[in-house]
Amino acid sequence: MPLSDKLKRRIIVALADTKTGKELIAAIDNSTGGLWGSISGNILDQSDLQSVLDSKISRTGDTMLGNLNMNGNAITNLTNPISPQDAVTKSWIEVNIDRTQLIYVSDADGNNATGNGSLLKPYKTIAAAIAAATTGTAILVLPGLYTEPTVNVPPTVNNLSLIGFGTGAVEISNGISHTASAGPTSLLIQSLNFNTLTLNEGAATDGVIRIKDGLGSISRTDTVANVLLSVVETNIVGGTLAGGTNTFSECLLISSPTINSGLTVYENSKFVQPIEARSTATIRMLSCEPFGISNFINGTIVSGSTPTWEIDDTTDYLGGYTGDIVKVILSNALR
């Protein structure tokens, strides 16, 4: 029989007036769950015990083993957070979090007139989000088909991130364009079917343009060697690279870009069609695979200049090709 049942409607008497920490100090009414009676008036009566139960207890080192139900009440007067697990107050968020650094877009639920870029009130178009963005802003684009005009990322908005957010595809029908400003440049495009991406980094001194988990064609109009175009886990369907430094890692090249100059590196990628390399372009290929083609590259002499093809020493990617190209076997140092 539970102790509470044993104590129900019984009085415990003659308890000692001194305690060592192990004595029974209260009985519980099994029917109500409340305090049933006092134990020893000289030690602790019912009102004293109720006062202890109703008071705020200040302890350190304890760990909660269950959920805390606040019953609609608020937790107040928190200290400033120190570790990542610390809770924060609304006022701390308002002071320390720049809401312009995270903007949401939803073609289905957004509204450019009444939206503020929050998850509950997103913008409808990516263009509206870019207009509200500042340097370093991340724009999270919810699944849908975005048929707005070409999404233009202007020179005034640097270090911008355009990221597909949520479950489902994000399709941008009319593509994305980016023009760099003077100085370092930075752009991230991730988890978007961007259709066409046009880059002009001619004004930049250096920087990185990152593309990850996307689909579309890429056209780069500048030849700035210090600006790296890094493409990862993306399906490429053509385009033109005027120059610069470009890398493609773990990509599927359904239709390869035409490369006119600069250095382009392909690593762990698969090709459905050969690469068209022209003029002074240098193509470096490491651990790549063909899909239904016998050779990876076409070489074209332009104004007396011949493209250079650099490969690792494990695979002959030429497949018997003897066209206009300079073949270089890479040493371990160059890989």
Explain the overall architecture:
The chain has four helices and 26 strands. It has helices spanning 3-7, 46-54, 90-96, 126-132; strands spanning 27-28, 35-37, 102-105, 138-141, 144-146, 151-153, 160-164, 170-172, 176-179, 183-190, 193-200, 204-212, 215-220, 227-232, 235-241, 245-249, 252-255, 258-259, 263-267, 270-271, 275-278, 282-286, 289-290, 297-300, 308-311, 326-329. The radius of gyration is 34 Å and the shape is elongated. With 335 residues, the protein is mainly β. An eleven-stranded parallel β-sheet has the order 3-4-7-10-12-14-16-19-22-25-26, with helices on one face. The model is unreliable at 21-43 (pLDDT under 50). The protein starts with a helix and ends in a 6-residue tail after the last strand. The longest helix is centred in the first third of the chain and has 9 residues, at 46-54.
Q: Can you lay out the helices and strands and say which pair or pack?
A:
Elements: H1 3-7, E1 27-28, E2 35-37, H2 46-54, H3 90-96, E3 102-105, H4 126-132, E4 138-141, E5 144-146, E6 151-153, E7 160-164, E8 170-172, E9 176-179, E10 183-190, E11 193-200, E12 204-212, E13 215-220, E14 227-232, E15 235-241, E16 245-249, E17 252-255, E18 258-259, E19 263-267, E20 270-271, E21 275-278, E22 282-286, E23 289-290, E24 297-300, E25 308-311, E26 326-329
Parallel strand pairs: 3-4, 4-7, 5-8, 6-9, 7-10, 9-11, 10-12, 11-13, 12-14, 13-15, 14-16, 15-17, 15-18, 16-19, 17-20, 18-21, 19-22, 20-23, 21-24, 22-25, 25-26
Antiparallel strand pairs: 1-2
